[in-house]
Design brief:
This protein is of the alpha+beta class. It has an eight-stranded mixed β-sheet, with helices on both faces. The longest helix has 15 residues.
């Protein structure tokens, strides 16, 4: 009701050992690389979403490579699902720095973001879908579908597709899922409406 996990409201109610067990229970799967996440899992999570879809990324070109991704987002929004997608600001220093850290070259990531945005153009102005640009140092890409999410960790010098990913689910007394959900909201709050 308050939107906070039990461990936040009553820190002493759940002993640390139990909190660790609950956190482990929130982990459905661990993948050595984002590319190892089964393609049908992405499709299942998207299809099952009934409340919210939150995406925090730099470019996220791989999502729009799914044949029905854009159409499904539009249908989900039409059915009342809130869709929030937060891209890296292609003009930001954070994007330029990340591009260099991944050894892509100074402006390659910015170009990837701009290229990726083209696929989302049909969704501009769709009620229920909002796009923003962030200028943050992105430690994880977050893909939330209601009470499940894929968290793609970022590793220095490694492209996101080759970095590990976690499949999480929200549990009432757990706070692992909520930590990443809060991170999404914090970055969303700092972000500006996307323009392209």
């Amino acid at each position: 009701m308050l939107g906070q996990p039990e461990s936040y409201l009553w820190p002493a109610a759940v002993p640390p050992e139990r909190q660790a067990m609950i956190a482990a229970s929130e982990i459905i799967g661990v993948y050595p690389h984002r590319t190892a996440v089964p393609l049908d899992l992405w499709d299942q999570l998207l299809a099952a979403a009934t409340d919210r879809i939150d995406v925090l990324v730099h470019a996220s070109q791989f999502l729009v490579e799914r044949p029905d991704f854009i159409r499904t987002l539009a249908e989900k929004a039409g059915a009342g699902v809130t869709v929030r997608i937060n891209f890296g600001d292609p003009a930001s220093r954070a994007v330029s720095l990340r591009s260099e850290e991944e050894q892509l070259g100074k402006s390659v990531l910015a170009v990837r973001i701009k290229y990726g945005l083209a696929a989302y153009k049909p969704l501009l102005g769709t009620p229920g879908i909002e796009f923003r640009f962030h200028k943050t140092t992105l430690y994880n890409s977050i893909f939330r579908y209601d009470d499940q999410m894929i968290v793609n960790t970022h590793v220095y010098g490694v492209p996101g597709a080759h970095a590990p990913a976690l499949h999480l689910r929200k549990l009432g007394a757990g706070d692992l899922f909520d930590t990443y959900a809060k991170s999404f909201v914090d970055v969303w709050t700092l972000s500006k409406p996307a323009t392209w």
